[in-house]
From TrEMBL, chain A:
Cited PANTHER family: TRANSCRIPTIONAL REGULATORY PROTEIN NARL-RELATED, TWO-COMPONENT RESPONSE REGULATOR
Protein name: DNA-binding response regulator
Domain Response regulatory: 2-122
Domain of life (superkingdom): Bacteria
Gene3D superfamilies: 3.40.50.2300
GO annotation, biological process: phosphorelay signal transduction system; regulation of DNA-templated transcription
Positions of the HTH luxR-type domain: 144-214
Organism: Streptomyces nitrosporeus
InterPro entries: CheY-like_superfamily, NreC/VraR/RcsB-like_REC, Sig_transdc_resp-reg_receiver, Tscrpt_reg_LuxR_C, WalR-like
TrEMBL record, chain B:
Lineage of source species: Bacteria, Bacillati, Actinomycetota, Actinomycetes, Kitasatosporales
GO cellular component: membrane
This protein's UniProt keywords: ATP-binding, Kinase, Membrane, Nucleotide-binding, Phosphoprotein, Transferase, Transmembrane, Transmembrane helix, Two-component regulatory system
Species name: Streptomyces nitrosporeus
Annotated Gene3D superfamilies: 1.20.5.1930, Histidine kinase-like ATPase, C-terminal domain
SMART domains attached to this UniProt entry: HATPase_c
Transmembrane region(s): 20-44, 123-149, 170-187
Reactions performed catalytically: ATP + protein L-histidine = ADP + protein N-phospho-L-histidine
UniProt keyword annotation of Transferase present: yes
Name of this protein: histidine kinase
Length: 215, 423
């Protein structure tokens, strides 16, 4: 799988290259600025891009703007955005086109290499990987409202994992329950939220996020 | 055309009405207050004046402030308030009264007020009478021409400079009256304005006063800015020292222990590694919060508009944000505005019990204006150690101001204005 990596801090870029290579990714390019990233995305057509939000030369949200522009050129281009902080505002912008293949994670998540690589693969496959921080912010914001408040603690847990983009199997292993139990929880959740059930991981996350985001 | 005339007549009549009201309500007040002031000052050597002067001065100031208000609402003439702030606690009893009197007498504005009372009851009154006259006097010409001239057939009646003793001369008078009325149509409003401009020329602070006030204010806000910056630095130092720094030290220690244990007791080493990783994650979280407290990342990346939007997204209350900023303000201004909004929103969520909040951010006439409105219980006040006075101080450094409208029962509207240019 070919990856384009954009990160301006040498140490982090180097670390990410090593880690991804260790997990059998092919690094097509590892760049350190916005213009370089745009060029690499256009020319190399990678399977997935792993990008820092803040990039030179502007040191603002250049990385984010680059991938948003690249996705307008090539809809559905899988992009995993990393940031020192996660902001709902950015999560919304990334999810706005509804094409999937989007990840938005705190940089700390690279601490757990296994989970991080899993997120990269999920995004590359067209799924989503939302940082738990974004999800919990969204959930706490909506906690007062009826439908979410009506979930049992167990269902809430499932919901959080589901919203991050995990598959039923992943949720089952994380919560140490059977996949059947997860499936039961998810259908209950969809029932309580009034969402039509769907097998598509990506669509169900988008639906959940869209629902959470409303209002 | 007829519309234009109609509005001119209406405007002129309105100005006349206002002048009429002012002539009676205010000029009488000016005369009374001037006499009282002079008497009160004269009695100071006897001691009685010490008791009455603060009261009289207060009345004079209220009187002047009423005129300031009318000047703005009726003729759009802004007269700044030059009074020096009295210290809140001048002491009880006679000693306090004396101190208050001395403070008031030292304020040049007190003497300028007296001057104004004099001008107001002479020149000011004259202008007002002129306005009323230009509308009322023509009426007399009309009555004369309509037949009242007959009464004066035997002895002359002077309508202005026209001797009236026949229908013809009465018609001359009517012509003059009409001319006066027409003149009034054009002159009444400017004349009323002139009255307020006259008041402004005496009441508004002089250039020196203005400068002195500005220096006072700058000194005050500089002290506050320095204090705030110093305490902020102390807080950051403490947070780093007790938080991230301590965690990194602990991590280093764990790693040292792991080094020693890795062969002897791999299971224990693994446990310690997990703990070290946990520590580093916590250190990161703390650093992140610290950075957010110093300069929020979204603010740095996107500017005030999006930072406020991001702020609103994190609120537990439904909120609407409208932003109209054609550029970015200077970083210090953005930061001050951001934290002011942040604190206002926190207040609204914590104290107002609101379930809806509206934030409006826009820039016009070199002024950044932000209003935060909630539909909560109201009753918020500036001062008395409330969070709002903290915001006021924060904005003060940039010559910004804060206005709060919060009647008991709500809603609360907090408005902030900071003069600044966008780039």
């Amino acid at each position: 799988m070919r990856v384009v990596l954009a990160e301006d801090l040498f140490l982090l870029r180097d670390g990410l290259v090593r880690m991804l290579e260790a997990y059998d990714f092919e690094i097509a390019a590892a760049v350190e600025s916005g213009p370089e990233l745009s060029r690499a995305l256009a020319e190399l057509k990678p399977d997935v891009a792993v990008v820092d939000v803040r990039l030179p030369p502007s040191h603002t949200d250049e990385g984010l703007q680059c991938v948003l522009a690249a996705r307008r050129e090539r809809p559905g281009l899988p992009v995993l955005v990393l940031s020192q902080h996660v902001e709902q505002l950015y999560a919304r912008e990334l999810l706005a086109d509804g094409d999937g293949g989007i990840g938005y994670l705190l940089k700390d998540r690279v601490f757990d290499a296994g989970q991080f690589v899993d997120a990269v693969r999920r995004v590359a496959a067209g799924g989503t990987a939302m940082d738990p921080q974004v999800i919990s912010q969204l959930l706490s914001r909506r906690a007062r409202d009826k439908p979410i408040g009506g979930l049992t603690p167990r269902e809430r847990e499932v919901m959080e994992l589901m919203a991050q983009g995990r598959s039923n199997a992943a949720i089952a292993s994380q919560m140490v329950i059977t996949e059947r139990a997860v499936a039961k929880h998810t259908s209950n959740i969809f029932g309580k939220l009034g969402l039509p059930p769907s097998d598509d991981d990506n669509r169900r996350v988008l639906a959940v996020l869209a629902y959470l985001d409303r209002g | 055309m007829t519309k234009a005339i109609q509005s001119r007549v209406q405007g002129s009549l309105l100005a006349t009405g206002r002048a009429f009201v002012l002539t009676f309500a205010s000029i009488a007040g000016s005369v009374t207050l001037f006499v009282l002031s002079v008497l009160s000052l004269a009695f100071i050597p006897l001691g009685v004046g010490l008791l009455t002067t603060p009261w009289v001065t207060e009345q004079v100031r209220a009187h002047a402030n009423r005129r300031r208000l009318l000047a703005v609402t009726w003729s759009d003439v802004r007269i700044p308030v030059p009074y020096r702030p009295l210290p809140g606690d001048t002491g009880e009893g006679l000693a306090g009264q004396v101190r208050r009197t001395v403070l008031l007498l030292r304020d040049p504005a007190t003497w300028r007020d007296l001057q104004w009372l004099l001008v107001d009851m002479t020149a000011g009154a004259f202008v007002l009478v002129l306005v009323v006259g230009l509308t009322v006097y023509p009426a007399e010409a009309l009555v004369l021409a309509a037949g009242l001239w007959r009464v004066y057939e035997d002895h002359r009646y002077w309508y202005a400079f026209v001797p009236v003793d026949s229908q013809t001369s009465a018609l001359y008078a009517l012509t003059l009256g009409a001319a006066l009325f027409v003149a009034g149509l054009w002159a009444n409003r400017p004349l009323l304005r002139l009255h307020f401009v006259l008041a402004r020329s005496v009441l508004a602070p002089t250039h020196e006063q203005e400068l002195a006030r500005r220096i006072d204010r700058l000194t005050e806000t500089r002290h506050e800015a320095v204090d705030t910056a110093a305490s902020e630095l102390r807080r950051i130092e403490r947070d780093l020292h007790d938080g991230a720094q301590a965690r990194l030290v602990a991590m280093g220690m764990s790693l040292g222990t792991i080094e020693a244990l890795v062969e002897k007791d791999p299971a224990q080493a693994k446990k310690l590694l997990a703990m070290a990783r946990q520590s580093s994650a916590e250190a990161l979280t703390e650093l992140r919060d610290l950075v957010r407290g110093i300069h929020p990342p979204v603010l740095a990346e996107r500017g005030l508009g999006d930072a406020v939007k991001a702020l609103a997204l994190r609120l537990p209350v439904a909120s609407e944000v409208s932003v109209e900023l054609p550029g970015r303000a200077g970083a210090p201004v953005e930061s001050a505005a951001y934290f002011a909004v942040s604190e206002t929103l926190t207040n609204a969520v914590k104290h107002a019990g609101a379930d809806r909040i509206w934030v409006d951010v826009h820039h016009a006439d070199g002024m950044l204006r932000i209003s935060v409105t909630d539909n909560g219980g109201g009753g918020a006040v500036v001062g008395a150690g409330s969070g709002l006075s903290g915001i006021e101080r924060r904005l003060g450094t940039f010559d910004g101001v804060l206005a709060v409208s919060s009647p008991a029962g709500g809603p609360t509207m907090v408005t902030m204005e900071i003069p600044c240019a966008l780039s």
